Amino acid sequence: MASTLAVALVSSLLFIQPGLADGLYTKSSPVLQVSGSNYDDLIVKSNYTSIVEFYAPWCGHCKNLQPVYEKAAKSLSGLAKVAAVNCDEESNKPFCGSMGVKGFPTLKIVKPGKKAGRPIVDDYNGERTAKAIVDAVTGKIVNHVARLKDDDYADWLDAGDAPKAILFSEKGTTSSLLKAIAIEFLGGIDVAQIRSKEDDAVEKFDVQRFPTLVLVPGKGKDAIKYDGQLKKDAIVTFLSQAATPNPDPAPKKAKASSKSDKKKASKASSSFAKSSKSQASAQAETDAASQTAETLEDESQPTASPHPDAATEDTQKPVKIPDIATPIPSLAETIPLQQKCLNTKAGTCILALPPASNPYASTEQALASLSEIHHKHATANRKLFPFFQLPASNPTSASLIAALNLDASTTQLIATNGKRAWYRQYPSATFTLAEIEDWIDSIRMGDGAKSKLPAELIVDAAELPAEPIEVKVDSTSDPEDIMAQLKQQLPEGVEFELEEIEDGEYERILAEASRGAAKREKAEAAATARDEL
């Protein structure tokens, strides 16, 4: 038996040796296969947003992602590019290193920037589902569609001699399809959207139903209504009578490779090879037992460079200003705890339970470590389940400790999942950042044993008062960017539209929000005072 197992392991190791394995995606796959030599032409110079997977054929998580990624590629066909790079190929290793790839699979979303050939490259750290990938990519599609109203559509029509295409719609948001149409004819046809409530524009073009697409072939020419299917290929054919679609990728231009470029590529390849070899070795050892995480820690931030250089000894580094981690929030009352963590629809939560009296230094260390971990993931735009501090003053704290048979005299960390009715207790008596992070990573990957969460601790979500939905929007004046950010944060199935409001209503909303914030601050201050007593 032992010799048979040894032979099987040796065969497995031989099978996954770099260079012997083919790529994961075939020529018939909807996933575009990209290499270091054609990345610029196919991705960087494209007007379309792309998502690029950097993978190795021997990587177990890459294999698991393959069907999901291909499903996402089919959904995004004609709207965005879904590409993959085989980093196990020798010719691609310098490129993968220059892109900061340190683990597999690594996913990056490449969005065209304001300057041609200088896209914004952003790590994708969301869920590995087709829907999550599609939502993330469509949210990054560049919007070249003008939003018009009765008071400005005439000026837009008169501006320039280019043909115009207008979609009359009942919706206030711009669809990914219309954005893709605008990209297809960028510089050839100006594209706009007008809502059905804009009566003057609707009457001028005699629009009887919605949606209706209208083409104005040129200034002073009669409008032509489109009566075909609302599919991209059919619409492109219709609009092609007025302008030629943009070629994608753009025509190639030869570029000489300098000695400096070759030197950088060599260093990047060497750095990448070390990371890849280390992961391949770990993968070979792990495959014989159970699968674990293959994505190495990477805190890279979005960059405007299509080829971010790998850091070397000679690279000058900017001075880093310390970024202080904010403390994890405290749940002082039972209802917020039940709304966040202990109900039949609640996902995973991390709860820190300090002792009722005489907190140890370990309590402070545990809370500091949790704050640092949460801050690191938030800074890198990685999704992570919430962390909360549960003070002894919370009435449910004692019930939780008793039901789970925890030691009330020491700091306790637990992970709970109300929807699946399980919990996990942190096993160590020390609370270093590395130890807690390893424990949290094992929860994220589904590793380790779980215990059943007692039914009496979980409440029916339908019986709880409604919890306000809080969303965070980065500073931006573009309504489309705001819509995309909100869409990614709201629960599945929630639909919304942005409407303009009068100044008086805006002032009323601000005043009401200010009063609410004051009440919350007062309640939090009272809870803190109780904790100190």
TrEMBL record:
Segment forming the signal sequence: 1-21
Keyword Isomerase set for record: yes
Xref: Pfam families: Thioredox_PDIA6_C, Thioredoxin
GO molecular function: protein disulfide isomerase activity; protein-disulfide reductase activity
E.C. numbers: 5.3.4.1
Isomerase keyword on record: yes
Residue ranges of domain Thioredoxin in the record: 6-142
Residue stretches of biased makeup (Basic residues): 252-266
Protein name: protein disulfide-isomerase
Organism: Neohortaea acidophila
